[in-house]
Amino acid sequence: MTDIIGFDEFTDELKCAVSVRYPESDVEIRRVTKNNGVIYTGLTIRNEDEQIFPTMYLEGFYDEAPGGRLTDELTDKICEIYESRRLGKVKLPGALGDYDAARGNLRCKLINSAANEEYLKDVIHRDFLDLAIVPYYLFDQGDLDLKGSSDATFVIRPANLEMWGVEWDEVLDESIRNTLKDDSISIRGMYELLSELNPSFASAAPEEFKACPMYVMTSGSCNGAVAMLNEEKLREFCDHIDSDLYVIPSSINEVILVPRDDTATRRMFDEMICEINDTQLDAVDVLSDHVYCYDRVGGYKALDSY
Question: What is the pTM of this model?
Fold first, then answer.
């Protein structure tokens, strides 16, 4: 029986192989803490004249390796991905040192407070229910020649406030305003959205699902659940359907809105959310483990008031 190579040995071999390909670069394997305390193992290839460089997370590549063994083909693939993401020599936007120029690029996201307790000690944030609003800077596509790749961002830390000469609450207020004024925030029926993503679903879905009053609210970004901060839009939607709402945190990317129904119980929703978190989501994408309640007159209510 062929022994299976462990993950640590795989990453050590990869570091050596990549170092041979890039002898003038600083190749590192490092642990990166992501949302909810999830730790990924990242590979970086850094050149002396580059201020920004990509991190490639290795867990997926290990799964591709036969028996955990690194192959030349897999090394080639990793190096090709690095080259496609490499920015080279770029001049960072002057806005990074000028708050008036930077403020228009501020956005915010929602994360779970308890699951990110250590992380939140080092970043600017504001409490919201049992969640935390975290501001970040969103680079323009033209700033870094991103070529249509995923968004480049950095989270705002105390050092940024010191450099800009502003208070944390001003940065948070600006990030929330910018995020919520985006036209991308939407509320759409679940059946309508799923049918658009998968046309065959429309004909296969049972009739009771078509009539199910469930709606997806998102900002359209990878942190789309932040849309739940837009209480003006929530109130308008409550008036439209003539009902208060249960707000289900389906992931960090969206929330699901369900008209309040006295026949439904909070326990039922909480059990459903926990099951989805455990079976359908990666841990890094989990937002919360319970439902929230939104009242069109009083706003978000404490759970024990429903």
Answer: 0.86
